[in-house]
Amino acid sequence: MLPKGRPENWEPPHDAFTSVFPEDWPEVAISAIGVQIAPGGDGAGLVQALAALFTSDGGPLHVEQSEAQERFGFKETLFFAYWRSPEQFRQWTDQAAVRALFGQPLTGLVGLWSETSCAATELIDPNYSMDGVRWGFSRYVPRKLEKEHFYYGSMRRRMAGRARLPGASAGAGFAVTRNGSVIEGVSKDHSCTIRSVVGLSLCSPAQRRDFIDGVYPAYARAADYLARSRAESGCFSARLCTEVHGAIDAGIDSSFLGYFASLDALEAWVHNHPTHDDIIASALSVLQRHQFQMPINLGHEVLVSRPGGLHLVYNNCHAETGLLPLLNETSGT
Length: 333
Fold this sequence. Notes:
9 helices
C-alpha cells in the first residue's frame, strides 16, 4: 500500500502532473447534468434539448458525455459541463430556455437532474498520471510536473489553499425549495466533489483487457459500498460512468463521480477503507504484470466547495437519485 504521510526526502516512483490555474481565474464550476430513463422510457428528446442549450450563447467551456451504470433499473445519459466561473453557470441557468427545460412538469418514465459544484481554484486538486491529457480543466490551463503524489495526504498537500480548508463536517445541510415535480437544494455547509477517470486508449489490447478484468471489479465494489453507506463513509452519492466519445473525445473511458461531506471524509475512505485498498492493490498487480509499462491515463479533479457552492436540481427523478435523499430528508418528504 501507499505510505501514510509524506516520507522524508520523498521521491515518487513515477511522474504525475497538475494543472496550474492563473491568478485571474479564481473560481470554477462543474455541472453533472443527467437525463434519467426508467425501463420503457425514451429520453432522446431531453438529451437533444440539453445538447442544443449547451451550444447556445453563454454555454459551458465544453461538455463531456457519459452513460451512468444502471441503478434500480434506470439508465442515465449525463453530461459533465465545465464552466469558467460560477457566475457564468448562473447566467446560463437564468436563461429563459434553460429555466423552461428544467422547470417543465415532467411525469412518467423520464427525469432530469443537475448537480453543480462551485469552488475556488486554490481549493481544487487536478492530478494526472500523464501530460497531454484533454479532459476537464486540463484543456484550458497549463500543467506542470509535480512530486507530491503516491502517498496518503498528497491530495491535500497539492491544494494551494490548503491552509484555508475547513475541518470535518457532517455536510448534510441544504436550503430546499419545491415547485411541482421539481426539488432544488443549495448547500449550507462545505462539501467535496471528486471526478476520477481512467483512459486506456493508448494501451495494447492485452493491457486494456487485463486492466478492465483486473481493476474494474474493484471500482464497482467501491462505488457500490459508497452508494449504500452514507452514514459510515460520509459519501452522499457515488456513480460509475462510461464515457461516450461524441463531439469531444476527452481521451478517457470511464469515470467515477462522488460527493463527500468534506475532504476529510474523502481522505478517510481513501486512506483507510478496504474497498479503496482493493483498487490500489488490483491496479498495482496489473501494472506489475506488465513491468509498470502501461500508458494508462489516470487522474482526478477534487473540489472543495464552500457553503452555497453545491447546487442541486431534480425533476421527476427516483427517490435515490444522487443527493436527492438528502433534500427529501431536509424537506421532510
